[in-house]
């Protein structure tokens, strides 16, 4: 295994200088020091210039809103405040890769949104690679393009998030119409009569939504319809309920 072209076990110090980490149970901040002093110590450790440090802290404060508790000892921070500081510390030296372990666990909605915005900004503007482990559906949907799925220690999927959703779920066409409904057509997997209308489950690899809708409109008087795209939550439920198989 190599990280940034290095063997992390053989070149530990060089590797440590080129990565950022946030682990829920471990902190890189000094417990009894004010937050700003922890940042200054990290500036020295990572050899960040004063001017660059000031510029980055101003940028971090703009998104994470750190200013209100920079003078507070780390031990007195709330969980959300501490996580925002941990993120700033992880990105302070502009590492090419950052590891985030459950960065939003236990946080309220507003803080989660702020953290996700910050991670997206760092990835977009600095081209930072972010390795994220999470059980939060919102994190996955909002932050991830590539997903790795592990099952009992084995990697069973490594690819785009959209492709994962396509692999384990089907599209649904919901129809509002009078009377009964039936449709035999390649790609139609199931038809359910629900409170919202008839729900047609279909495989878009076999039939497109346009072709399916065209066939329906030729046969029935439809008052309204909608196409429901599958979401990552459906995929996660399927994984937990049925397991994954290569």
**Helix and strand string, N-terminal first?**
HEHHHEHEHEEHEEEHEH
Q: What level of helicity do the residues show?
A: 40-55%
Q: Please count the helical segments.
A: 9
Q: What is the CATH topology of the largest domain?
A: Rossmann fold
Principal-axis shape equals: elongated
Topology:
Blueprint (H helix, E strand, L loop, with lengths): L11 H6 L1 E5 L11 H11 L4 H15 L14 H13 L5 E5 L7 H18 L2 E5 L3 H7 L2 E6 L2 E7 H8 L2 E7 L10 E7 L2 E6 L6 H11 L2 E7 L3 H11 L4
Helix pairs in contact: 4-5, 7-9
Description:
This protein has 246 residues and is of the alpha/beta class. 41% of the residues lie in helices and 22% in strands. It has helices spanning 12-17, 35-45, 50-64, 79-91, 109-126, 137-143, 161-168, 209-219, 232-242, and strands spanning 19-23, 97-101, 129-133, 146-151, 154-160, 171-177, 188-194, 197-202, 222-228. The strands form three sheets. Strands 7-8-6-9 form a four-stranded antiparallel sheet, with helices on one face. The protein has a three-stranded parallel sheet with strand order 1-2-3. Helix 4 packs parallel to helix 5 (109-126). The longest helix has 18 residues, at 109-126. The protein is elongated and about 75 Å long.
Short overview:
The chain is built from nine helices and nine strands.
Keywords:
2 domains, 4-stranded antiparallel beta sheet, 3-stranded parallel beta sheet, 246 residues, 22% strand, Rossmann fold, single chain, elongated, alpha/beta
């Amino acid at each position: 295994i190599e990280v940034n072209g290095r063997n992390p076990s053989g070149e530990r110090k060089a590797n440590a200088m080129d990565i950022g980490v946030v682990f829920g149970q471990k902190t890189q901040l000094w417990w009894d020091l004010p937050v700003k002093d922890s940042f200054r110590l990290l500036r020295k450790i990572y050899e960040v210039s004063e001017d660059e440090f000031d510029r980055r802290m101003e940028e971090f404060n703009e998104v994470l809103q750190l200013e209100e508790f920079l003078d507070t000892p780390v031990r007195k921070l709330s969980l959300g405040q501490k996580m925002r500081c941990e993120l700033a510390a992880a990105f302070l030296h502009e590492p090419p890769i950052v590891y985030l372990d459950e960065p939003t666990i236990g946080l309220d909605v507003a803080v989660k949104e702020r953290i996700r915005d910050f991670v997206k900004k760092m990835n977009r503007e600095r081209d930072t690679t972010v390795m994220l482990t999470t059980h939060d559906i919102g994190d996955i949907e909002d932050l991830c393009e590539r997903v790795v799925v592990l099952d009992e220690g084995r990697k069973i999927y490594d690819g785009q998030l959209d492709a994962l959703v396509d692999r384990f779920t089907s599209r649904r066409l919901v129809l509002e119409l009078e009377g009964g409904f039936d449709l035999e057509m390649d790609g139609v997997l199931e038809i359910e009569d629900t409170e919202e209308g008839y729900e047609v489950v279909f495989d878009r690899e076999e039939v497109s939504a346009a072709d399916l809708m065209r066939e329906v409109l030729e046969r029935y008087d439809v008052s309204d319809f909608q196409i429901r795209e599958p979401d990552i939550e459906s995929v996660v439920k399927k994984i937990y309920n049925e397991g994954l198989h290569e």
